[in-house]
Automatic annotation (TrEMBL):
Protein name in the entry: Gnk2-homologous domain-containing protein
Similarity remark: Belongs to the cysteine-rich repeat secretory protein family. Plasmodesmata-located proteins (PDLD) subfamily.
Family matches, as PROSITE patterns: GNK2
Keyword Amino-acid biosynthesis among UniProt keywords: no
Organism name: Corymbia citriodora subsp. variegata
Length: 132
């Protein structure tokens, strides 16, 4: 029979184990799709894309891990979507989305549309409205 002290240590051990197991998002690249059409760095779309990616990175974790965004610049629209694994804590979702934002720019450069699927989060932007 377990003593109260043993029960407390077991509970504390399980809490620590759960925290360690759930504390780091897996940012392994699973898939990427980059549109062959490109925009120029000075295009209005570049500004709209930057706004969307920054918004997705900052707000996906704060909005239920499934967040849509839209930005416009001089008549050019960019639409985006961010999503995280529901098992992540908010800070890990935010960290994964920040990494995904940087990775999509690195992998796809100035593509008019792109999506990156990491193990624990995904990010997508397009020059047209979409839903997933």
């Amino acid at each position: 029979m377990m003593t109260t002290r043993s029960t407390k240590f077991l509970a504390l051990g399980l809490l620590c184990f759960c925290y360690v197991v759930g504390s780091a998002p897996d940012m392994t690249l699973k898939n990427k799709i980059c549109n062959a059409q490109k925009f120029m760095p000075w295009d209005s779309f570049a500004s709209a894309r930057g706004d969307v990616l920054n918004d997705l990175s900052a707000n996906t974790a704060k909005n239920g891990y499934n967040y849509y965004s839209k930005a416009e610049s001089n008549g050019e629209s960019c639409y985006g979507h961010g999503a995280c694994n529901g098992a992540l804590v908010n800070a890990d979702c935010a960290s994964c989305m920040s990494f995904a934002k940087d990775r999509i720019k690195e992998e796809c450069g100035q593509s008019i549309g792109a999506q990156i699927q990491l193990q624990d989060c995904r990010i997508r932007y397009e020059n047209y409205l979409f839903s997933e």
